[in-house]
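Exam revision sheet. Question 4 asks you to relate a sequence to its structure. Input first:
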Amino acid sequence: MKIFFDYTCPFAYKAHLWLEEAGVASSADWQIFSLLEHNYRGDGPPVWELEERQNDISLLIFAGHKLVLRESGDLDRYRRTMFETWHRIGGSLKLDEIFHIVKQSGVNGTEDDLREVFLDAMSDHNRARQLGIFGSPTLVFDEDRVVFVKLDQAPAGESALSLLHDIETLSGRTELLELKRPQRLRSTASKSIPIALSKT
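Answer key, structure tokens:
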């Protein structure tokens, strides 16, 4: 299973917690989908190639991910630590903190190393676009089963794995375009039910 995601996305963070609980996070292939790039409305090149975005923290976080992957570091640790750090402090990371997490993950990187892999995350994002992906997180079970999942809360215990199985089953139902709760039901929704399930 591939998961296209953005570290800064709160729904990706909930999916990370859910898949950790389900015991499948480590075996999944976590690939970059930049909400910054997806929502960019400029007429120029992608955000990775814009001079004013070269120090954008969300893009540098992706570069850290790709650096740890390239150097065969502990990508699970990077993912867990980055998610927890970003969502605990509310998105005010600095470059040296990214390097600290890279180092904790077994890689002694430099800023030059980070710049060297800066564009690598763009290739992940472009693969997502080719699949028609529009949101974070999106689960890819195979080329015909691609679903965007938006959780209210991360399910716990046995319901975490059962939810994954339910979504995998629903993703194969080609008749289903979208399943979404009315607003008034969200406050009473079961923790194990996704708010929205959309199929590309």
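Marking note for examiners. The two ends are 16 Å apart (CA to CA).
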